């Protein structure tokens, strides 16, 4: 049965209920369930949709709902096709059965588009199947994955959170639409050339949001309008961040900061990494190694350097907070097996940040031991959360099973600190480093970094695709372990040989790697790094402008070429260059021994070599051509738009 109620179009048949409604300009939200009522959760979407006035028409064999430039048609037997304002299909359900014998795709295969397979306990294993409308379609976004493909069409992606993998299930299509899979269940996305499908391993509802737009920028910014935008990046986030695994003592860290100042090098943030605490789950400095944090913070601030401290969600069973958190239901539960989620440096269970009580308790503890001392940044590590074994079917959160709600855990982890810091009143704009994200994380001041990755050329290429795709997926603040032309300029790493152990208590057995400050790689490398440190500082005003765009519109800081030049067909083919904002085209060296490389200059603009900012009287090039450039060790190929 097809009918309208309010601003929504409904289809019901047997136990299934489908609802399609406007959710922002040129956008629709589609939900389906076999429950008696639609579940109330909005997950990543804004609580109330931006106002729209749809047009709904009901006919004998179909119904239509139009919202601006997008129209959904539902047949009398429930099949959904979505078109843009030109009448072009952008989405069509894949249905191969005999439910509708008048459907040209009527088939004896008996495959449903919306398959709700019942599970014991009341949930369903949901599979949603879509036609591959155009085999030449290109797809981007979906989060951060450790693979080198920028175009995701043809890929099989696990929708689950792991160390260095962040599922953020918004995709941008070259066909002129964006789609958010608005379901935090563990699952799978297959973006095939013959069929596309989305799976949720345990859920009660199909829920997605789709928008039509005439440019990638408008689509991504429309998505940001309904899921939230980052705050304004604080001033200290625009400069250089020094980090390593790990500074073991207060004096070691302070001496590094002093050396940066002695050398007159830019430094805005320095990092205290993990195991500066007595035990996991105590969220405080160990006085054995950090004897006077107040004095340390005061000295750093006198040098205009902010301190960032690492926080882990793990709670050691021997920690002072374990019994209280266990008694009050603040820890992740297990349906079976020994209750140890990780055994790194102790038997630990994670704090359950989907529980408001746990968010409040951990924040108040961190506030007393860190924030009240003047610390303005937190490193929310282990945010997936990480397990010794990713047996997602074992664990259960306050919000539900991990299979049904687990991907949203990093959102609530970020939310705990963001809401605490804002509520305290001392900070308006919040930026916290984090190791994982889901749709909507950005509105809680999330700066995603790409996790514990290898130091290899292959891994470097993976980060290239990861950073660009996660920006399209709505997370504009992103960084890997180094990069002058990353959104945030942070150095991190773990080098051999290992350093001597300091002490025997607390986190002492988690020893440090070799020095990784910019002067630690030899004089030749130091001069190169120094040059780019100073260049980034000269670009500070420009970077601030990019952060303003991200804050106001949700625009990525680093961008694919087609994001700025969608009419240039060649820009959709380039996968080894990117734009830092709209002005600088970056063509990094991605392979060992590369001494020359080809650089495509987008059509519709003029370009000249920029490199380290010191190129004089550089030749100007018309866009729409490929040039060959030298790649000496000391120079990264960069072009400036003129």
Biggest sheet, in brief?
A: 8 strands, antiparallel
Mean pLDDT: 96
Strand order of the largest sheet: 1-2-3-4-18-15-14-12
Question: What's the alpha carbon Rg, rounded to whole Å?
Answer: 25 Å
Task: Let me know the number of strands.
Answer: 39
Shape: globular
Low-confidence parts: none
How far the N terminus sits from the C terminus, by CA atoms, comes to 58 Å
Quaternary assembly:
single chain
Proportion in β-strands: 25-35%
Count helical runs. Answer: 11
Helix content: 10-25%
What does this 3D model show about the protein?
This protein has 642 residues and is of the alpha+beta class. The chain has eleven helices and 39 strands. The strands form eight sheets. An eight-stranded antiparallel β-sheet has the order 1-2-3-4-18-15-14-12. It has an eight-stranded parallel β-sheet with strand order 30-29-28-25-21-20-19-31. Strand 5 (55-58) and strand 6 (62-67) form a beta hairpin. Helix 5 (356-369) crosses helix 7 (409-424). The chain is globular, with a radius of gyration of 25 Å. The mean pLDDT is 96. Keywords: Glycosidase, Hydrolase. One of its GO terms (molecular function) is hydrolase activity, hydrolyzing O-glycosyl compounds.
Describe the secondary structure blueprint for this structure.
Blueprint: E1 2-5, E2 8-13, E3 16-22, E4 27-33, E5 55-58, E6 62-67, E7 70-75, E8 80-84, E9 89-92, E10 114-118, E11 124-131, E12 139-144, E13 156-159, E14 166-173, E15 177-181, E16 187-191, E17 195-203, E18 205-212, H1 216-227, E19 240-242, H2 250-262, E20 269-272, H3 293-302, E21 306-311, E22 314-316, H4 322-327, E23 333-334, E24 348-350, H5 356-369, E25 377-380, E26 395-397, E27 400-401, H6 402-405, H7 409-424, E28 432-434, E29 446-449, H8 457-472, E30 478-479, E31 489-491, H9 523-538, H10 540-553, E32 558-559, H11 561-564, E33 578-580, E34 584-586, E35 596-601, E36 606-609, E37 620-622, E38 625-630, E39 638-641
Helix pairs in contact: 5-7
């Amino acid at each position: 049965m097809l009918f309208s109620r309010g601003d929504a179009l409904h289809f019901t048949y047997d136990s299934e209920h489908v609802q399609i409604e406007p959710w922002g300009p040129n956008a629709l939200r589609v939900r389906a369930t076999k429950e008696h009522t639609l579940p109330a959760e909005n997950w990543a979407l804004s609580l109330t949709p931006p106002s729209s006035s749809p047009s709904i028409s009901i006919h004998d064999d179909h119904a239509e709902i139009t919202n601006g430039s997008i129209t959904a048609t539902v047949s009398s037997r429930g099949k959904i096709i979505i078109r843009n304002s030109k009448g072009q299909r952008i989405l069509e359900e894949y249905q191969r059965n005999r439910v509708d014998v008048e459907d040209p795709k009527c088939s004896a295969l008996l495959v449903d588009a919306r398959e709700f397979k019942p599970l014991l306990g009341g949930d369903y294993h949901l599979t949603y199947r879509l036609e591959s409308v155009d085999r030449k379609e290109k797809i981007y976004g979906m989060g951060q994955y450790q693979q080198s493909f920028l175009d995701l069409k043809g890929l099989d992606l696990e929708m689950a959170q792991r160390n260095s993998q962040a599922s953020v299930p918004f995709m941008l299509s070259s066909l002129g639409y964006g789609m958010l899979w608005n379901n935090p269940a563990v699952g799978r996305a297959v973006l095939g050339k013959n069929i596309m499908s989305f799976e949720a391993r345990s859920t009660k509802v199909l829920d997605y949001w789709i928008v039509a737009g005439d440019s990638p920028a408008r689509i991504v910014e429309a998505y940001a309008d309904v899921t939230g935008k980052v705050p304004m990046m604080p001033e200290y986030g625009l400069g250089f961040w020094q980090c390593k695994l790990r500074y073991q003592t207060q004096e070691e860290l302070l001496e590094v900061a002093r050396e940066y100042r002695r050398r007159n090098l830019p430094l805005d943030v320095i990092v205290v990494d993990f195991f500066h605490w007595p035990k996991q789950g105590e969220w405080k400095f160990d006085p054995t190694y950090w004897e006077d944090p107040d004095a340390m913070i005061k000295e750093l601030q006198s040098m205009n350097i902010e301190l960032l401290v690492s926080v882990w969600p793990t709670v050691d069973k021997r920690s002072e907070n374990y019994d209280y958190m266990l008694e009050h239901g603040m820890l992740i539960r297990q349906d079976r097996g020994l209750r140890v989620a990780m055994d790194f440096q102790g038997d630990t269970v994670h704090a359950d940040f989907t529980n408001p009580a746990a968010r409040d308790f951990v924040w108040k503890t961190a506030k007393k031991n860190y924030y009240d001392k003047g610390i303005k940044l937190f490193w929310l590590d282990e945010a997936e959360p990480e397990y010794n074994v990713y047996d997602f079917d074992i664990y259960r959160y306050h919000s539900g099973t991990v299979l049904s709600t687990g991907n949203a855990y990093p959102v609530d982890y970020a939310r705990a600190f963001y809401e605490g810091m804002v509520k305290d009143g001392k900070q308006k704009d919040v930026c916290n480093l984090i190791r994982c994200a889901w749709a909507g994380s950005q509105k809680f001041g999330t700066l995603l970094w790409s996790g514990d990755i290898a130091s290899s050329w292959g891994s470097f290429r993976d980060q290239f695709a990861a950073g660009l795709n996660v920006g399209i997926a709505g997370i504009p603040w992103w960084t890997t372990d180094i990069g002058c032309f990353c959104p945030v300029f942070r150095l991190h790493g773990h080098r051999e040989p290992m350093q001597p152990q300091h002490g025997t208590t607390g986190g002492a057995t988690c020893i440090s790697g070799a020095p990784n400050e910019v002067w630690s790689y030899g004089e030749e490398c130091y001069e190169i790094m120094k040059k780019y440190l100073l260049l980034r500082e000269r670009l500070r005003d420009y970077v601030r402008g990019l952060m303003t765009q991200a804050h106001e519109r949700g625009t990525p800081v680093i961008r694919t070429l087609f994001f700025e030049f969608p009419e240039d067909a060649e820009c959709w083919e380039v996968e080894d260059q990117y734009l830092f904002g709209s002005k600088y085209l970056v063509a990094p060296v991605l392979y060992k021994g590369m001494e020359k490389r080809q650089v495509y200059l987008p059509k519709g603009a003029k370009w000249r070599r920029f490199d380290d900012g010191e190129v004089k009287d550089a030749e100007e090039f018309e866009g729409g051509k490929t040039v060959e450039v030298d790649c000496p060790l000391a120079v990264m190929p960069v072009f400036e738009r003129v």
